[in-house]
Amino acid sequence: MRIAHLADVHLGFRQYHRQTPQGINQREADVAQAFRRALDDVIAARPDLVVVAGDLFHSVRPVNAAILDSFNQFRRLREGLPEAPIVLIGGNHDTPRSVETGTILKLFEALPGVVAVPQEPRYLRFEQLDLSVFCVPYAAAVSARPRLVPSGDAGRNVLVVHGRLAGLLPGDEWWYDHAGPPIEPGELNPERWDYVALGHYHVAHRVRENAWYAGALEYVSPNPWGELRDEERDGRCGQKGWLLVELGARLRVEFRPVALARRVIDLEPIEGAGVPAERLDALVCERVTAIPGGIDEQVVRQLVWNVPRYVARDLDHARVREFKARALHYHLDIRRPPPRREVGVGGPGSRRSLADIVEDVLSRRPLEAQLDRQRLLALARSYLERVEREAPEP
Q1: Residues 6 or more apart in contact with residue 278 via CB below 8 angstroms
Q2: How far is Cα 57 from Cα 43, in angstroms, rounded to an integer?
Q3: Beta-strand (E) ranges in the chain?
């Protein structure tokens, strides 16, 4: 039996200010196009079951164009795979905060063979496949979470969950959307399931041999640069897609990439300490010129460290505006040098930095006997340096 595992589509996502000739936000159009391309590949793969593990939409109240297009795409999927059930659960983005608000996901049950599970946990039984699917949407995963175990005597059992797992993600958990209390790895009981389909983390990632995040189909998180770093760790930098899962004597999971409308490029950072404005201009231009295929219509960030304000003022801002006009989005991310603390008798000192404050507090705070204060201070410094190094653009 084969399963198509998709997640975190985020239809209706909008970013930047560029519009298509039809007046649609360009990134919204990119996300819709990625979804269509993914469904083309799903239909061609002929799976026995299609699972969307949450966050079909970017908001609880998506715009009408996103609703209409998604309905048409699910209808096309239904026509292309008339025998395959389609299971759709709610994620944190498309789950209303109150039960009175209602959910748009129920709309898709107007299509035969589509089952939407927006808020309450639910076991689904598909007799023709000898399959049981336990759906745990975001609302159920963060409140009174049920015990994640199979039910009944089906030949195969699949768990579908939208949420974050504690301590198992390869990158820094702070950069992606918060989704309530984490799920402890042991709660999944992976040994009792044939497959665990996870949603919420936007990078395709193997948690266990039979438990995977499918990742998003486009870059729709608050910090795409963090996604790029995590994808690089998994050997799929710059790739988005879905998973084709084959259940049998031996589980097989295949990542199926989707062609993206444009690239998200994080250029190599530049160290600007002591570098004059003319040289920084040349370095920035070199980085942009070296982009394969050019900067036009791409999403690009150039990070420059330790640039004083007076040097930043003297940069060639006309050239930066040219880059911004050519790219869909170009961000020259200039970081100031850390403030220096100068203390003089009778003279005003500069405002204390966050690192100074944290170190001072932790140096004086009473600790339990088994805790090493120096290790605690070193850990705090490393966290602050990481946040400064990897903070998303404003």
Answers
A1: none
A2: 21
A3: 2-6, 49-52, 86-89, 114-117, 122-126, 131-136, 156-162, 195-199, 205-208, 211-213, 241-246, 252-257, 264-266, 270-271, 299-305, 329-334
pTM of the model as a whole: 0.84
Q: What count of other Cβ atoms lies within 10 Å of the Cβ of residue 51? A: 27
Looking at the DSSP bridge assignments, the partners of residue 79 are: none
Decide if 160 contacts 144 (C-beta within 8 A).
Answer: no
CA-to-CA distance for 277 and 270, rounded, in angstroms?
13
Range list for CATH 3.60.21.10 in the chain = 2-257
Q: Where are the alpha helices (DSSP H) in the chain?
A: 26-45, 64-80, 138-142, 224-233, 277-289, 309-313, 317-326, 354-364, 373-390
CA 16 to chain CA mean position, Å: 17
Q: What whole-number distance in Å separates Cα of residue 153 and Cα of residue 374?
A: 55
CA atoms within 13 A on the CB side of 44: 7
CATH fold label, 2-257: Purple Acid Phosphatase; chain A, domain 2 (3.60.21)
Range 197-208 average pLDDT: 94
Distances 303 to 16, 298, 316 between C-alpha atoms, Å? 19, 16, 16
Task: Average the pLDDT over 147-161 and give the result.
Answer: 93
The band of 114, judged by pLDDT with boundaries at 50, 70 and 90, is very high
pLDDT of 270 strictly over 80: yes
**pLDDT surpassing 80 at residue 372:** no
The counts of H helices and E strands in the chain are: 9, 16
Q: What is the dihedral of CA 108, 114, 117, 121, to 10 degrees?
A: 170
Q: Pick from 20-29, 178-187, 348-357 the range whose average pLDDT is largest.
A: 20-29
Q: Are 95 and 119 in contact (CB under 8 A)?
A: yes
Pairing, β 241-246 against β 252-257: antiparallel
Sign of CA dihedral 77, 160, 213, 196: negative
